Automatic annotation (TrEMBL):
SUPFAM superfamilies: Cytidine deaminase-like. It comes from Acaromyces ingoldii. One of its GO terms (molecular function) is zinc ion binding. GO terms for biological process: tRNA wobble adenosine to inosine editing. Residues 1-24 form the signal peptide. Residues 42-165 form the CMP/dCMP-type deaminase domain. This is Cytidine deaminase-like protein. Keywords: Metal-binding, Signal, Zinc. Gene3D superfamilies: Cytidine Deaminase, domain 2 (3.40.140.10).
Amino acid sequence: MAFFQHLLPGIALLALLSWASASAHLHPPSQHGLSINDVPWHRREHWMRVANEATYADGEPCPQAPFGSAIVNTTSDELICVAANAVGRTGDPTMHGEMTAIRACHEVLSKRGLSPPEILRAWRDFSLYTNGEPCPMCMSAIRWAGFKEIVYGTSIETIAKGGRNQIYIPSSDILAKSYSMGHMTLMLGGILANETDPFFAHQFNESAPCPAGCQRKDTPGKRVSSCQPKPEWREIIQQREPEELLDSGRAYREPSPVNTFWPWQRLS
Ligand SMILES: [Zn+2]
């Protein structure tokens, strides 16, 4: 009996760890085909693709920080803005893809003549699509804004496994701990992860394949190779569009001079 008594604290600790582990996975990846909030599944895939490819606007098919976001009116399916991580370009460490998109959309809404109170109300009708699960900073901003939905592709866990430094707090934890906000945010994870995961796999792993339009090359002065754009990457990506999408008018177009936040304007 004394032997088992000695084991009891260990068993209790194991039980606690297993409970904590289960809690961290309260929100499993979304199932293919789900139509929630009256949004058809194929539109979720469409907007995730737009978010995933937001970095193309900066001329970067294989960037070091491939985080892109698209903000969409959940009900009307209207794209408000698209933006990509701009930390390296600006030197502002808060310019993650989601934060850059929130600022870009704020400018779009201001230019449309919305007053600050109207802008604050507008976020509650919007879905934020992002190819990588939001970090604690971005998820907090998303909750402060009151977005109707947050939809992501690749999980923080997968991004970390790819060698990138992360703050190991799942966005579902931020969601759970912001219960007193007075507004709900639906979270869907793992959307189109088969297309978003490769964007995060190659930067720190020389054996990982490069995204479409990129090729692995040695860089002068560096000991490891990196994925770099092929000269014809734009043509490669345009050719990648399935026929039926081109037929439905979703072909790539040059960036709109009117709204610089729509990197690759698509007709939908
Ligand atoms: Zn972030």
